[in-house]
Amino acid sequence: MNKIGEFHFDTESYQMDFRGRVTIPMIGNYLIHAASIHAANRGFGYSDMTEKHTAWVLSRLAIEITDYPKSSESITVYTWVDEVGRLFTSRCFELANGEGKTFGFARSIWAAIDMETRRPTLLDVEGLSAYISDRPCPIEKPGKIVPVEAKTEAVPYKVKYSDLDINGHLNSIKYMEHLLDLFDIGMFREKEISRFEIAYQAEGKYGMMLGLHLAEAAPGKYDMAICHDEKAICRAAVTWK
Q1: Residue 57 region, left (φ>0) first, then alpha (ψ -120 to 50), else beta?
Q2: CA-to-CA distance for 145 and 235, rounded, in angstroms?
Q3: Residue 187: which of 19, 32, 29, 61 has the closest Cα?
Q4: What pTM, to 2 d.p., does this model score?
Q5: Residues 113-119: contacts with CB within 8 Å, 24+ apart?
Q6: Per-residue pLDDT of the chain (241 residues; tens, 9 = 90+)
Q7: Do residues 35 and 6 lie in contact, with contact meaning Cβ atoms separated by under 8 Å?
Q8: What are phi and psi of 157, to 5 degrees?
Q9: Cβ(39)–Cβ(54) below 8 Å
């Protein structure tokens, strides 16, 4: 089977923000959907993992966008496995518009956990390595994000029903939405996000009280965190242009 997956999406009006453009969280949804189907078609998808009492969890994600699609535009997502280790695997993405022009890339890191203990489990290195591709992904890998919670005031948030995923935990995309809501709407009117990076550290649960933090690291660059009991359950970084 081809190592590189190719998936097609058509943007809809309900997926747009107030500017009529696709959002970073919606792009994240496209990427996760493509990754899930690509894995399932090659024997290591959701059902295959469930049979082993394990599940994939997204550990890190970095997205870089040069142009945002508008309503009724076609998007093609290409995805492939980049690296495989004993505990983590790296997956890349390329996004192209209906004319075949690339407008973004993404890198992600995934781990497998035991569904009962929620602890990491060893990956099938040999099986996954059969799908490694050397297709280039010309953006920086996810890196270390500076802690900001000790020097910023928290915006409180309580995890609700609509935040939960199929496993009953805070949905990966919801982390992104809540963090981006920390920015004033004027920021979205005047600028675009050129890079969004997030590192997931712990699972949010229903009813959990969270604290959302935001700090400007440099002009146009911000570090963020979501905390529970003063400990980060994720960190993120945003670069605006």
Answers
A1: beta
A2: 6
A3: 19
A4: 0.95
A5: 113/54, 113/55, 113/57, 114/53, 114/54, 115/50, 115/53, 115/54, 115/55, 116/53, 118/203
A6: 799 999 999 999 999 999 999 999 999 999 999 999 999 999 998 888 888 899 899 999 999 999 999 999 999 999 999 999 999 999 999 999 999 999 999 999 999 999 889 899 999 999 999 999 999 999 999 999 999 999 999 999 999 999 999 889 999 999 999 999 999 999 999 999 999 999 999 999 999 999 999 999 999 999 999 999 999 999 999 999 9
A7: no
A8: -155, 140
A9: no
Which residue in 93, 88, 117 sits closest to 103, CA to CA? 93
SS (HEC) of the chain: CCCCEEEEEECCHHHECCCCEECHHHHHHHHHHHHHHHHHCCCCCHHHHHHCCEEEEEEEEEEEECCCCECCCEEEEEEEEEEECCCEEEEEEEEEECCCCEEEEEEEEEEEEECCCCCECCCCHHHHHCCECCCCCCCCCCCCCCCCHHHCCCEEEECCHHHECCCCEECHHHHHHHHHCCCCHHHHHHCCEEEEEEEECCCCECCCEEEEEEEEEECCEEEEEEEECCEEEEEEEEEEC
Closest CA to 214 of 184, 171, 186, 174: 184
